[in-house]
Each structure stands twice: as C-alpha cells, then as structure tokens.
C-alpha cells in the first residue's frame, strides 16, 4: 500500500542546507542512522561547493579514479586519470597502450575549436529570401557576437563564420542560423548560447519570422579530435588476431546493433576522462553518437585496417567539445588535480588525449572479443565485486574471488558459501 501521508511537495526545499534536506529525505524514505551517516560524509568535495554546483544537494557520490599507464601521445608519455565505476576499463587502456608503445604510441590532431550555436526561425513567408537577408548581415552579426565576449576575443577566439540552412520540418520550412564560434580553451556552451540569444531579436526583425530556440549544437563536427596508432602483428599475438580485429570493425560498420556496443566501449574510455576532468559527459556522448550517424547510417567511430607492412592501423575521429576553463573543470578540486596529472595545458591537447584513450579502449575490446571473449578478463574484477557483496573483507576478497574464477562460477551464493568455509 502506498503511504498517502508522504509528499514530494516540500516548499522551500531548495533554500535549506544539505544537512536539513538530508534529514527531510531520511524521514521520507525511512533511512536508518547508518545510511544517513554515510550520505552526510561528503568526502573530498566541500559541501558548500557541492551545494553550489547543482540544486537540492544532500550528498556526493564517489567514483573511483584509476590511472591509465603506458600511454605515449605525440611523442610524450602521459598518465591518464579515468573516473569510472566499470571494471576492466582502465586495464583495457593500459594493455592497448603497452602493445603499441614500441611502435610509437598515438599520434593525434584536431580539426579546430569551433562550436556551433543554432537559432531556429519559423514562419518566414519566404524562407529563401530570409536566409539571404541573414547572410547579408554577416559583419553586423560578427560585431554583435564578439561584443558578447570581449575576453574570448582577446584570447584569440570569437565569431568565425555564419551558415544559414533551410530545414524541412513537420511544421514547414525552418530557417536555421548557425553561428560558428572559436571558443578556444572553453567548452563554449555559455559563450555561444549568449551570442545566439543576443542575436535572436535581430534575426526576427530582419526577416519578420518568429524565433524559438537559441542553443548550441552538441554535434560539434567542427571540433573533431583525431588519433591514430599502429600495432605490429607480432605485438598483438599474430595475423589472426589482427584480422579478427579488422573483421570486428567491419561488423560494427555494417550493423547498427553491433555499432552501438562497439561505440559504447569507446565511450567507456572517453567518458571516463571527460568525467575525471570535470567536463560534460552527456555533451560528448550526444556528439559522438550523432557523428557516428552523420551519413544517415549509424556506424563505427573508429576504423581498423591492415597496412602494407602487415601492421594493424587504428584511427578515430570524434567530436570533442571539452574545455579547461569554466564550470566543474575549474571548480571541482578533483578535476583540477586530474588535469594537473594529465599536464594538458590546452583544451586542444585534452581533446586529443581523450580521442587516443577512445581508440585504445576500442583496440582492447575488439582484441578480447575476437579472441578469448571479454568474460575471462572481466571475471577477475567482477568476482572481487561479488566477493565484497557477499561480505568478504581484506584478504578474503582475493581468495574468494580466485576460487570462484577457478571454478568458473561467479555468484553471490557461491561467494557466501566460500566465505563461510574460509572463516571455518
Ligand atoms: C563493455 O562495457 C564494452 C564492450 O561491450 C565493448 C564492445 O563490445 O566493443 C566490451
């Protein structure tokens, strides 16, 4: 039976302190003292800062940060912090990087740091004429946009280009203006959204239409990060393994059901670094998947080929709108520390490192899938998690996990039985 005295209507909830809110939530959900004590421990994130990062804060949630070793990117060795709850993700990057370290590691590049803001105009009686009217105002538009962010302009960024598209929609033709803006070391959402909002009334006035949306596009296809690496056939276990990886790519290229999983693996690596550096994981994920479907068919973000010498060549190209300034990147102390570990002094370098991690991740997933399967590698860590769920502590965790892996049965009931046996 539902408890009708419980209400989610809590006037002034947002004005309360995290502690006061937690007490209300504990009351609502019937939390015990131990759970409340656990939630009120905010670890290494200042409660005051947490309370300002988002709304209605009651707690923080720790995610492990692991370091990917063996990475050599553009001739420089880097240690890469990755924040993820998924086992095997960090190990996958370390393994892939070790196997291409001697053949030079990763080489990266970037198409630019241009973001796109969209202005949606509807109801223009002559959309093609409206489009030309907007394009005629390029200089004025540049002035309006650049005046929104003089600091960005001083840093070498600002308005770069204008594009006006006619988009056929269910509601008739829309005139969609794209502001193309160099946002330098910022992710750029705030900068371009401000510009789009400032320009919108002018667009209405010039065309006689009605503006609705004014917002960036996460399909940041003018901010593509690229990475490539070569693995010799010997380093990865022979020509059969190499050909299995290439065939796995062909599968993902041909079949969206496989491509979704293939790209999910890539995003395991990418999102972990994006999160560790306080960047927006959802923006990067949306951009990556939209880019993977850019020609109307959802496919792979990576490509795998065999070189003339018989080596395996992997490449990745993915939108990478990450920044070093603004938002959690600057405010979150762990993000700041992680950026120091990475030594990335520009958003461009950070984006390129992240692309290399995505490629490394994909290499390891495809290699495992094309050979032994992923369960073998996964099982060791998974078994440890199951052992902990069964109550194992300290050395018991490894011992119980090892027994389960050896038997090939990783289950909580088995772990519990093994634990009872160990404890006599
Ligand atoms: C699991 O999180 C990721 C993989 O499924 C990726 C893939 O299948 O390529 C292993």
Structure in words:
This protein is α+β, with helices and mostly antiparallel strands. The chain has 4 domains: 13-53, no CATH class; 65-111 and 224-371, 3-hydroxy-3-methylglutaryl-coenzyme A Reductase, Chain A, domain 2, CATH 3.90.770.10; 114-216, Hydroxymethylglutaryl-CoA reductase, class I/II, NAD/NADP-binding domain (Alpha-Beta Plaits), CATH 3.30.70.420; 376-422, no CATH class. The protein has 17 helices and 10 strands. The chain has helices at 18-29, 33-40, 47-53, 89-101, 127-136, 138-148, 150-154, 189-207, 239-254, 256-276, 281-292, 327-331, 333-342, 347-370, 375-389, 395-407, 412-422, and strands at 65-73, 76-83, 106-110, 114-122, 158-169, 172-182, 210-216, 224-231, 302-306, 312-319. The strands form 3 sheets. Strands 3-8-10-9 form a 4-stranded antiparallel sheet. A 4-stranded antiparallel sheet has the order 5-6-4-7. Strand 9 and strand 10 form a beta hairpin. The radius of gyration is 25 Å and the shape is globular. The mean pLDDT is 96. The structure holds (R)-mevalonate. Residues 86, 261-262, 264-265, 268, 365, 369, 374 line the site of (R)-mevalonate (MEV).
Compact description:
The chain is of the alpha+beta class and 424 residues long. Helix content is 50%, strand content 19%. The strands form three sheets. Strands 3-8-10-9 form a four-stranded antiparallel sheet. It has a four-stranded antiparallel sheet with strand order 5-6-4-7.
């Amino acid at each position: 039976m539902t408890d009708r005295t419980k209400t989610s209507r809590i006037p002034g909830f947002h004005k309360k302190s995290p502690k006061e809110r937690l007490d209300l939530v504990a009351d609502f959900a019937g939390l015990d003292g131990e759970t409340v004590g656990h939630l009120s421990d905010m670890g290494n994130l200042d409660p005051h800062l947490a309370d300002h990062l988002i709304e209605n804060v009651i707690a923080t949630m720790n995610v492990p940060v692991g370091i990917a070793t063996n990475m050599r990117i553009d001739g420089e060795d880097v240690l890469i912090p990755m924040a993820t709850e998924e086992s095997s993700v960090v190990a996958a990057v370390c393994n892939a990087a070790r196997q291409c370290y001697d053949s030079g590691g990763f080489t990266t590049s970037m198409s630019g740091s241009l973001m796109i803001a969209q202005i949606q105009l509807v109801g223009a009686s002559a959309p093609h004429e409206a489009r030309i009217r907007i394009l005629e105002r390029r200089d004025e538009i540049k002035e309006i946009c650049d005046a929104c962010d003089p600091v960005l302009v001083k840093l070498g960024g600002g308005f770069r280009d204008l594009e006006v598209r006619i988009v056929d929609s269910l509601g008739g033709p829309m005139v969609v203006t794209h502001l193309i803006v160099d946002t330098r070391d910022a992710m750029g959402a705030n900068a371009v959204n401000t510009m789009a909002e400032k320009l919108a009334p002018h667009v209405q006035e010039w065309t006689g239409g009605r503006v609705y949306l004014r917002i960036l596009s996460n399909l940041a296809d003018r901010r593509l990060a690229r990475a490539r690496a070569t693995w010799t056939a010997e380093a990865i276990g022979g020509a059969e393994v190499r050909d299995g990886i290439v065939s796995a790519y062909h599968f993902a290229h041909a079949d969206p059901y496989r491509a979704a999983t293939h790209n999910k693996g890539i995003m395991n690596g990418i999102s972990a670094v994006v999160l560790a550096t306080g960047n927006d994981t959802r923006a990067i994920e949306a951009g990556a998947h939209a880019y993977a479907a850019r020609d109307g068919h959802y496919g792979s973000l990576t490509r795998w080929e065999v070189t003339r010498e018989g080596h395996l060549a992997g490449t990745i190209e993915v939108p990478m709108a990450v920044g070093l300034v603004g938002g959690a990147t600057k405010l979150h102390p762990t993000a700041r520390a992680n950026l120091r570990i990475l030594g990335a002094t520009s958003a461009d370098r950070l984006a390129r490192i992240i692309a290399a991690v995505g490629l490394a991740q994909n290499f390891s997933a495809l290699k495992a899938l094309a050979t032994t399967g992923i369960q073998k590698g996964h099982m060791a860590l998974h078994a440890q998690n199951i052992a902990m769920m069964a109550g194992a502590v300290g050395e018991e965790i490894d011992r119980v996990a090892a027994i389960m892996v050896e038997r090939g049965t990783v289950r909580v009931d088995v772990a519990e039985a093994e634990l009872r046996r160990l404890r006599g």
